[in-house]
Amino acid sequence: MEGLALELKKYKHIFVVCDRNVEGVARQIAGSYPLLAITADEAHKTIDTVLEICRWLMEQGADRDALVLAVGGGVTTDMAGFAASIYKRGIRYANVPTTLLSQIDAAIGGKTGVNLDGYKNLLGVIRQPEFTAIFPETLETLPEREFRSGMAEMLKTFIIKNPKGAYERTVRGSKSELTKLIQLAAGVKQEIVEKDEFEGGLRRKLNLGHTFAHAIEWWKPGKFTHGEAVAIGIVQAARISEKLGIAEEPGLADRIAADLKACGLPTELPCPAEELLPAILKDKKAEGGLINFVLPVKIGKVVVKKLQNLELLG
Questions:
Q1: Does residue 181 register a pLDDT over 90?
Q2: Are 214 and 263 contained in the same domain?
Q3: What is the CATH number of the domain that holds 128?
Q4: Which residues pair with 292 in a beta bridge?
Q5: 32 and 83 share a domain?
Q6: What's the whole-number mean pLDDT along residues 244-252?
Q7: pLDDT at 188 over 80
Q8: Do 232 and 103 fall into the same domain?
Q9: Where are the alpha helices (DSSP H) in 66-209?
Q10: Same domain for 168 and 135?
Q11: Domain range holding 113?
Q12: What confidence tens digit (pLDDT) does each residue in 17-67 have?
């Protein structure tokens, strides 16, 4: 992490916010910098935690030239980034993501935010970090379930764009290729974000699987990890794509489902789709009663279509 130490020397006042689960790693990075450890899970991903971070910054005397360094998974980077974005009308922040999911997705692209009454990420802003420092070695102590959760986001990314056969390489599961696959996945997201920072069109493709995923997480909080819910959502999207005649690859949904299962991920809706509609209609991707829904065409290609409720029910 020598490169990170050199990068941090560019900033005079640094304040570290970390997930309690990686406090040891964060303290190694922080050194003498002030550090706040928070509970970073979906239940605590609320405006109250963001205000806790803001109050701590105020108590520490953080000024407009401060840098908030977020160390942890996507929940941590989302909340710390949001706090930095609103504290004193915006100070700088940077990310050190420590989960696979955050290294390839959540910590890249500038989306920050929190949940509102159980509905995912309804409050937030898009504000780019100063930098995102990725260290694959931080994944070595990641619980297996959390690692699999990140694999769902990785496969999602390569369904959207499949550079160098990355989707097939991910399914084969060679750990020796993990660092290269992380770089490829992060590169795909960064490329899309650079072309469409504020989700006017192209960036919506990154929401593949997320409409149903967010609804599943609302339906029974804590039953599924985010990645597990995304895996189910991707398969549902592929089935809808086949039903609407958009999928170009025969048996696409079954292929994706088999690949996700091979990675230890769930693929079937845990309840009737009708039970998820209240959350789907409140999703931030809903506009005028229609849902901007991402549909797989084939591995490496997706499209965004506006769908009505009945088209989502199968």
A1: yes
A2: yes
A3: 3.40.50.1970
A4: 306
A5: yes
A6: 96
A7: yes
A8: no
A9: 74-86, 100-101, 144-160, 166-172, 178-195
A10: no
A11: 2-140
A12: 999 999 999 999 988 999 999 999 999 999 999 999 999 999 999 999 999
- Looking at 100, 125, 140, the residue that finishes a domain is 140
Q: Is residue 311 pLDDT above 80, yes or no? A: no
Indicate if 190 and 52 belong to the same structural domain. Answer: no
Looking at the structure, do residues 39 and 125 belong to the same domain, yes or no? yes
Residues 35 and 27 sit within 8 Å (Cβ to Cβ): yes
Catalytic residues: 89, 111, 153, 189, 199, 203, 207, 210, 214, 226
Query: For 299, what's the count of Cα atoms within 13 Å in the CB-facing half-sphere?
Result: 22
Residue type, 295: L
CA distance 196 to 202: 6
* 178, 211: one domain: yes
Return d(Cα 67, Cα 45) in angstroms, integer: 21
Structure tokens at 19: 């997930």
Total-model pTM: 0.91
pLDDT digits (tens, 9 = 90+) for 119-176: 999 999 999 999 999 999 899 889 999 999 999 999 999 999 999 999 999 999 877 8
Whole-number pLDDT of residue 175: 77
Give dist(CA 150, CA 176) in Å, integer: 16
Structure tokens at 97: 């993501």
Rg (the chain; Cα; Å): 19
Q: What is the DSSP letter of 102?
A: I
- The DSSP line for 7-41 is HHTT-SEEEEEEEGGGHHHHHHHHTTS-EEEE--S
